[in-house]
Amino acid sequence: MSHQPELLLGRSLRQARELAQLSQTEAAQKLRITPAALSQYESGKRRIEALILDRLAHLYGVPVTYFFDDNNHQNPLPHWETHLRRMAQDLSPEAKAGITQLIQIIHQLEQLYQITHTPLPVNGDRPLHHPFPPLSQSQYSNDQIAQYAQKVRRHFNLGMAPLHYLKTFLETQGYPVFSVPLGGGNNSLTGLFLCHPTLGAILVINEKQSYTRFPFLLSHEIAHCFFHWDRYAVLCPLNSNDPQEQFADRFASYFLIPPEGLQELLDTMGIKTVKYPEEVIHIARYFGVSYGDTLHRLGGDRKLGVSKEHFKGVKPVALATSLGYSYLPNSFEIRPLPPEERLPRIFLELSHKALNQNLLSLRRVAEILGISDLELEDRLNEESLEVPEEIYA
């Protein structure tokens, strides 16, 4: 009987690892321990240190208390979480860890809504509304996809305007945007779309991708959000040949650079086709799209007057600076990204609301925002927020 607590803890450790779709070897590598040591923890044959337990909780995306609550073995996971974890089972360990991190953050957002008594975006009174019927996975022509992109622009009443603050705009429309690390190799994801039962349509991009590609990746997820929402969740592998992914890629290109807007800009520039890297920079900066994505779009629309080889070897940041453009935010891939780039605006707002109402401590809010206590204090001072003494408890 003396080993009963260790056996229960070990069973919880194994269940949490399996939920995260990680093998013992994968989990041990992430923790920098041996698979044999992890096996002994899970079998109850070895006592586990508090630091290792905390690291396991972070890796598996569960609170430390999960390991000591026997009810977890009887309570089923929400359907959306089970579905998402199952879809992630063939991903790289890094991508699996990112999915787990995303699930943890989504649960935190749900809890913030709950403790602040803020109405959820979706419930029985306000169901999730999709403006367009879902599309099949059959092939579509470029003209058809351009028309679908134009439909979404008309839905938002955007006209041909460039979308320089796409994340901010989407969140004002009720679409929360998350950035999490989803791997950096061939078996990684560029992002994903999730139809959540109470938070609504969630858009996620891989924060390990180049920051200048974020608008394109986000527009890719918009395509899934508006036209593939019947899939419940869509994971987007890097360099996928799936027709659904090809549709989303081409949609993103036309959504960010509408054909009429591109032609109008070319007319203003006094050119019919693009022949110089400087012209690509001007077009990219006008529409707020990366140099590479702009070049790809111009090639697809046969707007290049010379071979693509002519545009290789260009350093877009240096060239843009020489043309008088200012640096874009995070042009030099500053990591980690600040909370404003990683988390939806509503997450930050509810965190501050919980802090100001003494519902969460400053330390806890800093933890869920992924920053230090000192950084949060500095942020609060900059925002001139009054922090009650009780929150330091």
UniProtKB/TrEMBL annotation:
Span of domain HTH cro/C1-type: 13-67
Pfam name, any one: Peptidase_M78
SUPFAM superfamilies, sorted: lambda repressor-like DNA-binding domains
Alphabetized InterPro entries for the sequence: Cro/C1-type_HTH, IrrE_HExxH, Lambda_DNA-bd_dom_sf, Rad_response_metalloprotease
Record family assignment: Belongs to the short-chain fatty acyl-CoA assimilation regulator (ScfR) family.
Protein name: Helix-turn-helix domain-containing protein
